[in-house]
Structure formats: structure tokens, C-alpha cells
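Per your request, structure below.
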């Protein structure tokens, strides 16, 4: 079980890259990205990593839109960056949601 979380993260990033560069994203691939993000949030983030993961997730989710707009005019990179960042947001958001719920539970259980 301990190996599923890291592999889910690696496969999620690979799928995000492949669907951004090679294939047209479809609903099935986006659901897979979301599911892998859930697995990462459930299996890969320990109690002591919750704060760091949430801060990093929030920073990425907030900056992804601006970063894609900034890099869009850059030749070659610009055409691939927006779909890639969108895919990574779809991958990261469910895990961040699960970890946020975990943090809320840890705070409110006492």
C-alpha cells in the first residue's frame, strides 16, 4: 500500500504531460487524473506533511493560471503549457481537497 501513493503521483504527472503534448484530453483521462490525485492525497501525505502539502498545492493552484498566461506567447512552450498546467491542476486539486478535509478533521477532533 505504501508504494501506491508515490506511483500515483508519478503516473499522474506522466498522464498530465502526455495528454498536454501528444493526445487530445478526454473525459476519461481527466477522471483518471482526478482519481490519481485522490490516491496521492489519501495515501501519500502523512500527518506531518499536511501543512506543507496544502501550502504548496494552494500556491500552485493559484499561480497556474497566471503562469500559463505569462508563458503562452513563448514559442513551442506556449502551446503546450496551458494544457499541461490545466492537467496538473486537475491532478492536484482532488488531493488538496482530501488533505484539507484531513486537516480540518485533525483540528476539530479535540
Amino acid at each position: 500500500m505504501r508504494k501506491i501513493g508515490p506511483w500515483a503521483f508519478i503516473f499522474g504527472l506522466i498522464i498530465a504531460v502526455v495528454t498536454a503534448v501528444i493526445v487530445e484530453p478526454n473525459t476519461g483521462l481527466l477522471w483518471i487524473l482526478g482519481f490519481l490525485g485522490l490516491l496521492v492525497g489519501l495515501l501519500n501525505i502523512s500527518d506531518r506533511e499536511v501543512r506543507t502539502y496544502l501550502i504548496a498545492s494552494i500556491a500552485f493552484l493559484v499561480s497556474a493560471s497566471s503562469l500559463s498566461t505569462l508563458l503562452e506567447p513563448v514559442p513551442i512552450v506556449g502551446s503546450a503549457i496551458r494544457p499541461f498546467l490545466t492537467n496538473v491542476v486537475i491532478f492536484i486539486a482532488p488531493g488538496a481537497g482530501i488533505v484539507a478535509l484531513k486537516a480540518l478533521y485533525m483540528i476539530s477532533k479535540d
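The radius of gyration is 15 Å.

Regards,
D.
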